[in-house]
């Protein structure tokens, strides 16, 4: 396989009434496991369904904060991050063969740490040692709110000011087509049907998940792994409920799945928990940083670029290290076929189409039942939502996870030729010209008009043997605060090195 990186240098001016909120983007480009392991739901036992797992090799069916820290490695690029990040794997049911096959994951996972304090505050707390939480509801199979979302300015009344709504609005299924302006993050809250994916999502589907960032300040976990945390008023931004006053980093997951590899084949995509609707998409997080180190990072790693290389605290690992970090599987599932083709999904979970509530295993609720497989319901949701180009958040916020920024219309762009190619198992496969590919991406993603323009960073699969990563680098960012002061941030250059795409994907 050949991996190439294209670097596009950007000179732009960002302006707003307040300083741009800081963040860093944690790349976990290699899985540490693909297995039925979920210590938050099925502690000490085999999980009901398969998960794509990233992070510490100390992860196990009975993982704890201490065991994550004691792990010998992490599949994420920052050596100090021994956290565990996991979501259901995605599968495709071929209607002709009646067999399931794993959808390939592209580029691993990105875990964003967005540093959004509550109004009037200038700081926030790190995740405490032993902290854990789940976002989403594995058994949800319906969405009873208007589609698309109403304006966020109207979310201050029922039912939009409820945790039930915010939890569902925290799911995103971003249709990828690198030839056009990308959709905004968290735009679509359900899994598009096969016909829509084939017709529009030529570069796959990006699954997005926003975690609660408001904490009660006392409990580091709870029976259902949810009750100790809550969403702020606008899912990602806004303010916390009064009984959850302490603001934590806003954690946001992105994983890309190559759904277009099944273009033209009759069948159904579904998540590994038996969910063909997407309404039950969810994710789990176990904190695995040294608490004092993470607090220092939250306080000081505030470069506006979001690049981990711009934080001097972080030790950046090479792909030869993070790409060879794997959890040890229990003997009961060490040889389980989680890739396919297989007649049932791993764990044989009930396939529940909805709209009724499903009965899968949940923390503090139903127990995993590995032999309870079957089909509940026969009709997939007919809900649709057409493509819409991504837009910025409110004027006081300039960043949207997924790489969409608002930039001034006079921005200038220069293409760097510092692309790298790393041949692996298929050295004879020639990569697409970096200059040609990047130029096409720029033309497709930069919209110059009377209003703001947008750009995006992304991975794209050029062919079965080539993955291309396109990075945007800010040369100068000028931020105006309260129209009285101007802050200029000097250029920060990302250290470049090739990353292999190998067996973990």
From TrEMBL:
It comes from the Eukaryota. Pfam families: DUF1996. Residues 38-289 form the DUF1996 domain. InterPro entries: DUF1996. This is Related to glyoxal oxidase.
């Amino acid at each position: 396989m050949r991996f190439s990186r294209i670097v596009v240098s950007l000179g732009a001016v960002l302006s707003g009434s307040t300083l741009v909120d800081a963040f860093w983007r944690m790349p976990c480009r290699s899985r540490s496991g693909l297995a039925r392991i979920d210590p938050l739901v099925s502690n000490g036992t085999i999980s009901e369904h398969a998960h794509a797992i990233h992070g510490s090799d100390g992860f196990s069916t009975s993982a704890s904060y201490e065991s994550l820290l004691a792990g010998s490695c992490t599949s994420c690029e920052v050596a100090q991050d021994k956290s565990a990040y996991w979501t259901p794997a995605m599968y495709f049911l071929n209607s002709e063969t009646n067999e399931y096959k794993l959808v390939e994951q592209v580029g691993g996972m990105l875990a964003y740490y967005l540093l959004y304090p509550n109004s009037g505050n200038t700081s926030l707390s790190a995740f405490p040692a032993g902290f854990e939480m789940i976002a989403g509801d594995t058994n949800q199979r319906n969405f009873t709110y208007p589609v698309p979302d109403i304006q966020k300015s109207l979310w201050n009344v029922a039912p939009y000011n409820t945790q039930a709504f915010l939890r569902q609005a925290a799911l995103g299924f971003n249709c990828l087509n690198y030839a056009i302006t990308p959709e905004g993050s968290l735009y679509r809250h359900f899994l598009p049907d096969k016909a829509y994916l084939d017709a529009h999502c030529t570069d796959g589907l990006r699954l997005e998940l926003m975690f609660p960032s408001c904490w009660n300040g006392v409990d580091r976990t709870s029976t259902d792994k949810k009750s100790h945390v809550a969403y702020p008023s606008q899912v990602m931004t806004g303010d916390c409920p009064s009984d959850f006053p302490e603001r934590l980093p806003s954690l946001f997951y992105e994983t890309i799945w190559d759904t277009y590899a099944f273009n033209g084949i009759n069948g159904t995509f579904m998540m590994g928990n038996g969910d063909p609707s997407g309404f039950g998409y969810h994710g789990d997080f176990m904190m695995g940083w040294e608490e004092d180190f993470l607090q220092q990072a939250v306080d000081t790693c505030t470069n506006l670029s979001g690049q981990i290389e711009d934080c001097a605290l972080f030790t950046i690992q090479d792909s030869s290290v993070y790409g060879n970090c794997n959890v040890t599987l229990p003997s009961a599932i060490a040889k389980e076929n989680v890739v396919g083709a297989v007649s049932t999904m791993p764990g044989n979970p009930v396939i529940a189409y909805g709209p009724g509530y499903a009965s899968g295993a949940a923390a503090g609720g139903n127990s995993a039942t590995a032999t309870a497989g079957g089909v509940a319901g026969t009709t997939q949701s007919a809900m649709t939502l057409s493509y819409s180009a991504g837009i910025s958040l409110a004027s006081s916020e300039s960043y949207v996870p997924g790489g969409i920024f608002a930039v001034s219309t006079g921005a200038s762009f220069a293409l760097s030729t510092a692309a790298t190619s790393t041949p692996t198992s298929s050295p004879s496969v020639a990569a697409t010209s970096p200059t040609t590919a990047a130029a096409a991406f720029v033309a497709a993603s930069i919209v110059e008009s009377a209003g703001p323009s947008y750009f995006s960073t992304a991975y794209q699969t050029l062919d079965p043997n080539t993955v291309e990563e396109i990075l945007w680098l800010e040369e100068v960012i000028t931020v105006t605060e309260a129209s009285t002061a101007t802050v200029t941030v000097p250029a920060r250059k990302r250290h470049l090195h090739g990353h292999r795409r190998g067996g973990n994907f």
